[in-house]
Amino acid sequence: MLVDAGFSASRLVQLLRERGVLPGDLDAILVSHEHSDHIRGVDVLARRFGTTVVANDATLRRVPSPGKRFSSMVLKTGNAMSIGPFEVASFPVSHDAAEPVGYLVSVGGARVAVATDLGFGTRQVLEAITLADLAVIEANHDVEHLIGGPYPWHLKRRILSESGHLSNRQSAEIIADALTARRQTYWLAHLSRTNNTKTLAEQGVREFLISQGLAADVAVLERDRPSLTWEPQTQTTG
Predict the structure, then answer these.
(1) Structure confidence at residue 182 as a pLDDT band (50, 70, 90)
(2) Is the overall model pTM greater than 0.85, yes or no?
(3) Which of 15, 4, 29 is nearest to 86 (CA)?
(4) Of 59, 97, 131, 141, most Cβ neighbours within 10 A?
(5) Helices (H), 87-136
(6) Over the stretch 51-77, which tens digit does the pLDDT of each residue have?
(7) Superfamily of chain region 1-76
(8) Buried b (16+ CB within 10 A) or exposed e, 160-190
């Protein structure tokens, strides 16, 4: 299962094979929204390997496919479906796209939530991340770096808006609200090259959690390559 395909198809094939995954073995490509950094490789990858693309109708209609149309399935926002061994549920997020979503994927008793490209944490986002054993959540920017950085003001305003991107602090607040007594892991993702660093993101989240008397298993994903692996932990109760 692949969530979004923002690299070229050839690059994605290389990255998958480096991880021991044959592209033809993918059960589906889940698409969160139609922005180019999330769909660049969707069409070629799906047609080359016969992989089914899953998204809501508004997003599917905006994924370019200049040749023969790839195989697809519509998953209405807020609904769920079974795909091979996976149970996939989508939930709405706030972003400046046609109908953007995040995903909660369940398999073998483990649940993984993916929520990137969102301006704030809605009730549905918080519910999904609370349910997840692993949550991949956006930590796009450090606000001070963004405001003092080189972007034009109209772009800064877009990023800071409720349909823009989460700051490190906003990501930390969502994690704090989602923490439960279960063992949960959080991966920070979609960091801006210009307005954030791995150190700023991780420190910002950890320091906020500490200020609230909380702690969590937090790590930061690389922007341009697979960098972390995760296996479900056996949950124990006292």
Answers:
(1) confident
(2) yes
(3) 29
(4) 141
(5) 123-131
(6) 999 999 999 999 999 877 899 999 999
(7) Ribonuclease Z/Hydroxyacylglutathione hydrolase-like (3.60.15.10)
(8) eeebbbbbbbbbbbbbbebbeeeebbbbbbb
* Range 194-226 burial, b when 16+ CB lie within 10 A, else e: ebbebebbbebbbebbeeeeeebebebbeeeee
d(CA 53, CA 80): 15
- Would you say residue 83 has pLDDT above 50? yes
Q: Are 203 and 209 contacting, i.e. CB atoms less than 8 angstroms apart?
A: no
The 10 Å Cβ neighbour count of residue 87 is 14
The count of other CB atoms within 10 Å of the CB of residue 61 is 12
Tokens of 218: 């937090």
**Distance of alpha carbon 23 from alpha carbon 45, whole angstroms:** 8
Tokens of 216: 């969590």
For residue 65, what are its two tokens?
Answer: 């496919």
Give the residue extent of every domain in the chain: 1-76, 109-225
Looking at this protein, which amino acid is placed at residue 111? R
Same fold, 1-76 and 109-225: no
Structure token digits, residue 50: 């016969």
Cβ(145)–Cβ(160) under 8 Å? no
Written as six digits, the tokens of 152 are 């034009």
Query: Using an 8 Å Cβ cutoff, are 27 and 83 in contact?
Result: yes
d(CA 186, CA 196): 18
Amino acid at 8: S
Contact between 114 and 103 under an 8 Å Cβ cutoff? The reply is yes
Specify whether domain 109-225 bears CATH 3.50.30: yes
